[in-house]
From TrEMBL:
Cofactor(s) listed: Zn(2+)
Protein name per Swiss-Prot or TrEMBL: Methylthioribulose-1-phosphate dehydratase
Organism: Tahibacter amnicola
InterPro entries: Aldolase_II/adducin_N (IPR001303), Aldolase_II/adducin_N_sf (IPR036409), MethylthioRu-1-P_deHdtase_MtnB (IPR017714)
Principal EC category: lyase
UniProt catalytic activity: 5-(methylsulfanyl)-D-ribulose 1-phosphate = 5-methylsulfanyl-2,3-dioxopentyl phosphate + H2O
Domain Class II aldolase/adducin N-terminal, chain residue ranges per copy: 17-206
Name of the gene: mtnB
NCBIfam families (UniProt xref): PRK09220.1 (NF006672), salvage_mtnB (TIGR03328)
Length: 213
């Protein structure tokens, strides 16, 4: 029987500080209302530091972060991770270079998810800020942000994301209908850059729709 994993407290605290810093920043922007949202960072090859369920993401402290394995099971704690933790660990399993995953609920993200739920996709083209997404070097490209149906069945959502990735299409983030956005990066800084870029692109798209009425 394998020995139980004992977390390195300094390493876990370092992850918690980075997650809390991101939470304060994103909370101040109004992107984490009413204890919504969840954040995570890779702890090591087999574990992830993630926010504990129900905490105010704009006021996170070191005790609001816990450790899970890549199946989403709690490690060395009785705390309960977010019900959406499976969507975080899925990305760490699929891509060992991913270092942070961010999920927020801004107004733009939520409204856009409702508007585009029918088509299942938002396609950005011609926006200079597409270049903020890793791998995009010109505005003369197409950047797709899928919109998956909302459900409390996390394994079903995991299957939808897996199906998208298995089809070989690029994926740097996705919306869930009436819910919010998930995006990620190799570092917390890259994940935040992706989140800010998608937020701007969604706001621009919504404004163009409003002005074109």
């Amino acid at each position: 029987m394998p020995e139980p994993m004992i977390p390195d407290q300094e390493r876990l605290a370092a992850c918690a500080r980075d997650i809390a810093d991101a939470g304060r920043d994103l909370g101040a922007r109004g992107w984490t209302p009413a204890t919504s949202s969840n954040f995570s960072m890779r702890y090591d090859a087999d574990h992830v530091a993630v926010t504990i369920s129900g905490r105010d993401k704009g006021r996170l402290g070191l005790d609001d972060i816990m450790l899970v394995d890549l199946k989403g099971a709690a490690v060395a704690t009785q705390a309960r991770p977010s019900a959406e933790t499976l969507l975080h660990v899925q990305m760490y399993r699929r891509d060992p270079t991913i270092g942070a995953v961010l999920h927020t609920h801004s107004l733009n993200q939520t409204v856009a998810s409702r508007l585009y739920a029918g088509t299942g996709l938002i396609r950005f083209s011609g926006f200079e800020l597409q270049k903020a997404i890793t791998g995009y070097t010109t505005h003369e490209s197409e950047l797709d942000l899928p919109v998956f149906p909302n459900t409390q069945d996390m394994p079903e959502l995991v299957e939808r994301v897996d199906a998208w990735l298995d089809s070989g299409k690029p994926l740097h983030g996705y919306l869930i209908d009436g819910h919010g956005i998930y995006t990620w990066g190799r570092t917390m800084a890259e994940a935040k850059r992706h989140l800010e870029a998608f937020e701007f692109l969604l706001a621009a798209d919504l404004e163009l729709r409003r002005l074109s009425r």
